[in-house]
Each structure stands twice: as structure tokens, then as C-alpha cells.
């Protein structure tokens, strides 16, 4: 996964497409474009049977350019980086800064794609894609684009509760002074703990618990594990914040109702 920091200091986490996914999407697009070309050629042959050789060759060349260059460029421009092949494989082409591609990006990709995909039978695109970390073909390198996964499995929500044996301690503990950054690290650790190696999980839990202990009083009961301690503190802090915000919202609603009464109302 690659991280991109936008001008507004927002961190975007994008997953570059794998080589296999890009290859599959490209094969689908190429097959569709070739089928379209065959249909257009058959239509031209049926409609212009009495044309001379020069006119037929000109129409054939125009059909090739239309089906293999104009159509891909138009589809990627209108769909903001998607094509039928990319939709089928869950991919999307974006700029290097994570934004949607524009017409000029699609034109560069389309013109270069005609060279590296059709004129070299995909050999140039394959050779370039194998030797860069994001599986970018030559058109992507020239246009400043790459393909990302647009369909990413949603992570299951992790529900955090205060362990039963720590409920009485958490209810009486002073946890209101925990910095937001420390609380976010603790919550993030709890969400990712299931995917961490046991040794890394234990070490990080101990580190974050030690950092939290400087802002929580009194200390937990003896024998409390770092995982239980983190769960108790984070869950209790969340519950208190929810109660505080709910009370503030209720008081604001009551104030608004009073302001709508006489003598201000009709």
C-alpha cells in the first residue's frame, strides 16, 4: 500500500494493482477493442463495397485509429480512469498524486498504448511493467499515472468493551487527560492487533500501555495484562465521550426549543 500526502495534508492510502490484475484487465480491454474493430470493418465492407482500394485503405486506417485509440481514450476520460476491463478486475487508473486522470493523461496512455500493446503485441508493455514496483507500463510512466485497486474488502469492525473484571476500576479511574494522539494510537493498535505477530503485538501493547499509564490514575489491579488495560481505557474513554456529546446535543436541542417559544414565536 502506498501513502500519498495531498496539499491539504490528508494522507491517502492507495493499493497499487498487481501485475496479474493489470494483465487481466488489459486482456479484456484488448479483446473488446478488437471485437469492435472487426464489427466496424464488417460494417464498412458492407456499406462501401464499390469503393476503390485507396478509399478502402483510408477507411480501414480510420477504423483502426478509432477503435484502438479514440475509443480507449474516450472511455478512460469519461469514466475517470476506468474501462470495462478495469471494472471487471476492480481497478482504476489515477494520477501519481492519487487524483482522477484527465483528457491529457488518457491521450498519452492511448497513443503510447497503441505502440506498446498492438504494434509490439504487448511485449513492450510487459517488459516495462515487470521492472517497476507499481506494474506501470510505458504509457503510465509518460503520463504520470498508475493503476490502483478500487474494490478493497472492507475490514470488519472491531468492537471494544471494558473487560468485566476491570469495569469497576474503569468506572472510577481518571482518564480524562489522555492526549488525543495517544488515544488514537491505542485505538489503532486494538483494530490491528489481530493481524500482528504475537511478539510484535505484545511489545507494542506494552509500549502503548506504559504511555497511557502516565495519564490514567489509579493504576489497574495487579496482574492486568496490557491488552486488557488498553481495551478498558479506550472503551471507557469512548463511553465517556459519547455520554458527554449526547448531553451537549440534548442541551442544545432544549435551548433551541426554548428560543422558539413565546414571545419569539407567533
Explain briefly what this protein structure is.
The protein has helices at residues 19-47, 53-78, 84-89, 103-119, 123-129, 138-143, 167-172, 180-192, 198-213, 226-259, and strands spanning 2-5, 11-14, 91-95, 145-149. It is mostly helical.
Give a structural overview:
It is elongated and about 95 Å long. It has a two-stranded antiparallel ribbon with strand order 1-2. The protein has 2 domains: 2-149, no CATH class; 164-259, no CATH class. Mean pLDDT is 84; it is low at 1-12. Strand 1 (2-5) and strand 2 form a beta hairpin. 60% of the residues lie in helices and 7% in strands. It is mainly alpha-helical. The longest helix is centred in the C-terminal third of the chain and has 34 residues, at 226-259.
By secondary-structure content and strand pairing, the structural class works out as mainly alpha
Number of domains: 2
Average pLDDT, all residues: 84
Strand order of the largest sheet: 1-2
Largest sheet: 2 strands, antiparallel
Helix content: 55-70%
What is the multimeric organization of the chains shown? single chain
| Helix/strand order, N-terminal first | EEHHHEHHHEHHHH
Number of strands: 4
Distance between the termini: 59 Å
What is the strand and helix layout of this fold?
Layout: E1 2-5, E2 11-14, H1 19-47, H2 53-78, H3 84-89, E3 91-95, H4 103-119, H5 123-129, H6 138-143, E4 145-149, H7 167-172, H8 180-192, H9 198-213, H10 226-259
Antiparallel strand pairs: 1-2, 3-4
Helix pairs in contact: 1-2, 2-4, 8-9, 8-10, 9-10
